[in-house]
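We were asked to recover a plausible sequence for a given structure. The inputs and outputs are reproduced exactly as logged, with field labels preserved.

PROBLEM: sequence recovery
POSITIONS: 202
GIVEN STRUCTURE:
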Protein backbone atom coordinates (compact mmCIF):
# COMPACT_ATOMS: atom_id res chain seq x y z
CA UNK A 1 0.00 0.00 0.00
CA UNK A 2 1.39 3.45 -0.85
CA UNK A 3 2.06 5.83 2.01
CA UNK A 4 -0.57 8.24 0.70
CA UNK A 5 -3.25 5.58 1.07
CA UNK A 6 -2.57 5.09 4.78
CA UNK A 7 -5.27 6.79 6.84
CA UNK A 8 -3.24 9.32 8.84
CA UNK A 9 -6.20 9.80 11.21
CA UNK A 10 -6.20 6.10 12.04
CA UNK A 11 -2.45 6.35 12.74
CA UNK A 12 -3.01 9.29 15.10
CA UNK A 13 -5.89 7.48 16.86
CA UNK A 14 -3.69 4.45 17.41
CA UNK A 15 -0.92 6.63 18.85
CA UNK A 16 -3.39 8.34 21.21
CA UNK A 17 -4.48 4.86 22.36
CA UNK A 18 -0.85 4.02 23.18
CA UNK A 19 -0.25 7.30 25.02
CA UNK A 20 -3.39 7.22 27.18
CA UNK A 21 -3.18 3.52 28.03
CA UNK A 22 -2.47 4.09 31.72
CA UNK A 23 -5.30 6.59 32.25
CA UNK A 24 -8.66 5.47 33.57
CA UNK A 25 -10.97 8.44 33.02
CA UNK A 26 -13.61 8.37 30.29
CA UNK A 27 -12.07 11.54 28.78
CA UNK A 28 -8.46 10.53 28.25
CA UNK A 29 -5.96 13.15 27.20
CA UNK A 30 -2.36 13.42 26.01
CA UNK A 31 -0.43 16.62 25.41
CA UNK A 32 2.34 18.04 23.24
CA UNK A 33 1.61 15.75 20.31
CA UNK A 34 3.54 18.23 18.13
CA UNK A 35 6.71 16.87 19.79
CA UNK A 36 5.82 13.19 19.52
CA UNK A 37 8.49 11.11 17.79
CA UNK A 38 5.92 9.13 15.78
CA UNK A 39 3.22 11.61 14.80
CA UNK A 40 4.77 15.04 15.58
CA UNK A 41 5.52 15.88 11.93
CA UNK A 42 2.04 14.87 10.75
CA UNK A 43 0.47 16.95 13.53
CA UNK A 44 2.59 20.01 12.73
CA UNK A 45 1.66 19.79 9.03
CA UNK A 46 -2.01 19.32 9.85
CA UNK A 47 -2.09 22.54 11.90
CA UNK A 48 0.20 24.69 9.70
CA UNK A 49 -2.69 26.93 8.51
CA UNK A 50 -4.03 27.16 12.05
CA UNK A 51 -0.60 28.41 13.24
CA UNK A 52 -0.85 31.27 10.70
CA UNK A 53 -4.42 32.11 11.73
CA UNK A 54 -3.39 32.01 15.40
CA UNK A 55 -0.48 34.39 14.87
CA UNK A 56 -2.91 36.83 13.21
CA UNK A 57 -5.40 36.39 16.07
CA UNK A 58 -2.75 37.19 18.68
CA UNK A 59 -1.03 39.80 16.44
CA UNK A 60 2.39 38.20 16.89
CA UNK A 61 4.99 36.53 14.66
CA UNK A 62 5.56 33.82 17.25
CA UNK A 63 3.09 31.76 19.23
CA UNK A 64 3.24 29.10 21.94
CA UNK A 65 1.33 25.91 21.34
CA UNK A 66 0.42 22.48 22.63
CA UNK A 67 -1.61 19.95 20.64
CA UNK A 68 -3.84 17.82 22.88
CA UNK A 69 -5.32 14.52 21.73
CA UNK A 70 -8.27 12.96 23.54
CA UNK A 71 -10.53 9.95 23.40
CA UNK A 72 -13.98 10.26 24.91
CA UNK A 73 -16.42 7.42 25.56
CA UNK A 74 -20.12 7.26 26.32
CA UNK A 75 -21.59 7.81 29.81
CA UNK A 76 -19.71 10.91 30.91
CA UNK A 77 -20.62 14.58 30.75
CA UNK A 78 -18.78 14.92 27.41
CA UNK A 79 -15.38 16.32 26.47
CA UNK A 80 -14.48 19.20 28.79
CA UNK A 81 -16.94 18.11 31.53
CA UNK A 82 -20.06 20.17 30.80
CA UNK A 83 -20.86 23.79 29.88
CA UNK A 84 -18.02 26.22 30.52
CA UNK A 85 -15.83 29.04 29.23
CA UNK A 86 -12.08 28.42 28.90
CA UNK A 87 -11.42 32.04 29.82
CA UNK A 88 -13.83 34.81 30.69
CA UNK A 89 -12.00 37.89 29.41
CA UNK A 90 -8.52 37.00 28.13
CA UNK A 91 -8.56 36.28 24.36
CA UNK A 92 -8.56 32.52 23.76
CA UNK A 93 -9.14 30.71 20.52
CA UNK A 94 -8.74 27.01 19.79
CA UNK A 95 -8.58 24.90 16.66
CA UNK A 96 -10.17 21.45 16.55
CA UNK A 97 -10.01 18.38 14.30
CA UNK A 98 -12.08 15.25 14.93
CA UNK A 99 -10.21 12.04 14.19
CA UNK A 100 -13.43 10.04 13.93
CA UNK A 101 -16.54 11.13 12.00
CA UNK A 102 -18.59 13.22 14.43
CA UNK A 103 -21.30 13.66 11.83
CA UNK A 104 -24.40 13.50 14.00
CA UNK A 105 -25.32 14.74 17.46
CA UNK A 106 -25.25 11.26 19.01
CA UNK A 107 -21.48 11.25 18.49
CA UNK A 108 -20.62 14.02 20.95
CA UNK A 109 -19.92 17.10 18.81
CA UNK A 110 -18.70 20.27 20.51
CA UNK A 111 -21.57 22.69 21.06
CA UNK A 112 -21.15 26.49 21.19
CA UNK A 113 -23.24 29.44 22.23
CA UNK A 114 -22.79 32.74 20.40
CA UNK A 115 -21.64 35.97 22.03
CA UNK A 116 -25.16 37.26 22.86
CA UNK A 117 -26.26 33.93 24.34
CA UNK A 118 -23.03 33.74 26.37
CA UNK A 119 -23.62 37.24 27.78
CA UNK A 120 -27.24 36.32 28.62
CA UNK A 121 -26.16 33.23 30.59
CA UNK A 122 -23.44 35.16 32.44
CA UNK A 123 -25.99 37.83 33.29
CA UNK A 124 -28.48 35.17 34.49
CA UNK A 125 -25.86 33.50 36.69
CA UNK A 126 -24.80 36.82 38.17
CA UNK A 127 -27.99 36.64 40.27
CA UNK A 128 -26.74 33.38 41.78
CA UNK A 129 -23.38 34.97 42.58
CA UNK A 130 -21.62 32.52 40.31
CA UNK A 131 -18.58 34.31 38.89
CA UNK A 132 -16.68 31.23 37.74
CA UNK A 133 -16.07 29.66 34.34
CA UNK A 134 -18.56 26.81 34.82
CA UNK A 135 -22.27 27.00 34.09
CA UNK A 136 -24.00 25.85 37.28
CA UNK A 137 -27.59 26.99 37.13
CA UNK A 138 -30.06 24.33 35.86
CA UNK A 139 -31.98 27.01 34.02
CA UNK A 140 -28.78 28.12 32.24
CA UNK A 141 -28.06 24.54 31.29
CA UNK A 142 -31.50 24.31 29.75
CA UNK A 143 -30.93 27.47 27.67
CA UNK A 144 -27.44 26.31 26.64
CA UNK A 145 -28.81 22.98 25.45
CA UNK A 146 -31.51 24.65 23.41
CA UNK A 147 -29.30 27.36 21.87
CA UNK A 148 -25.95 25.65 21.43
CA UNK A 149 -24.87 25.10 17.83
CA UNK A 150 -23.34 21.69 17.21
CA UNK A 151 -19.99 21.53 15.41
CA UNK A 152 -20.90 18.42 13.40
CA UNK A 153 -18.04 17.44 11.10
CA UNK A 154 -16.44 14.48 9.36
CA UNK A 155 -12.95 13.50 10.52
CA UNK A 156 -10.17 15.76 9.28
CA UNK A 157 -12.25 18.96 8.99
CA UNK A 158 -10.58 21.75 10.94
CA UNK A 159 -12.71 24.29 12.76
CA UNK A 160 -11.92 27.01 15.26
CA UNK A 161 -13.81 28.85 17.95
CA UNK A 162 -13.37 31.61 20.48
CA UNK A 163 -13.46 29.55 23.69
CA UNK A 164 -14.49 32.55 25.77
CA UNK A 165 -17.94 31.60 24.43
CA UNK A 166 -19.80 29.04 26.55
CA UNK A 167 -19.31 25.56 25.10
CA UNK A 168 -19.12 21.85 25.90
CA UNK A 169 -18.52 18.49 24.28
CA UNK A 170 -22.01 16.99 23.94
CA UNK A 171 -22.33 13.68 25.85
CA UNK A 172 -21.94 10.73 23.47
CA UNK A 173 -25.14 8.72 23.01
CA UNK A 174 -24.09 6.20 20.37
CA UNK A 175 -23.27 2.81 21.92
CA UNK A 176 -19.63 1.83 21.55
CA UNK A 177 -18.61 5.04 19.77
CA UNK A 178 -15.28 6.60 20.74
CA UNK A 179 -14.75 10.23 19.88
CA UNK A 180 -11.15 11.05 19.08
CA UNK A 181 -10.13 14.66 18.56
CA UNK A 182 -7.13 16.98 18.42
CA UNK A 183 -7.26 20.41 20.02
CA UNK A 184 -4.68 23.09 19.33
CA UNK A 185 -4.04 25.24 22.40
CA UNK A 186 -2.38 28.52 21.44
CA UNK A 187 -1.08 31.38 23.52
CA UNK A 188 0.35 34.75 22.62
CA UNK A 189 2.00 36.72 25.41
CA UNK A 190 0.30 35.28 28.48
CA UNK A 191 1.29 31.63 28.78
CA UNK A 192 -0.01 29.45 31.62
CA UNK A 193 2.69 28.28 34.02
CA UNK A 194 1.37 24.72 34.27
CA UNK A 195 1.75 23.81 30.58
CA UNK A 196 4.71 22.74 28.45
CA UNK A 197 4.52 24.80 25.27
CA UNK A 198 6.33 24.74 21.93
CA UNK A 199 7.37 28.05 20.41
CA UNK A 200 6.44 28.43 16.73
CA UNK A 201 8.03 31.19 14.63
CA UNK A 202 6.06 32.35 11.59
FE1 LIG B 1 -13.30 24.20 26.78
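RECOVERED SEQUENCE:
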Amino acid sequence: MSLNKIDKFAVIRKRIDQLVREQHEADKRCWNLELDTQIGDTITKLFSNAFKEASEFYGQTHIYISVMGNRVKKDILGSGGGWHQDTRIKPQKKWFVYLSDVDNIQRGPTQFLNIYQTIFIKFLELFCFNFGNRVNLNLSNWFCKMWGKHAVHKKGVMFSADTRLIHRGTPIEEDGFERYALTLYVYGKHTPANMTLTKIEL
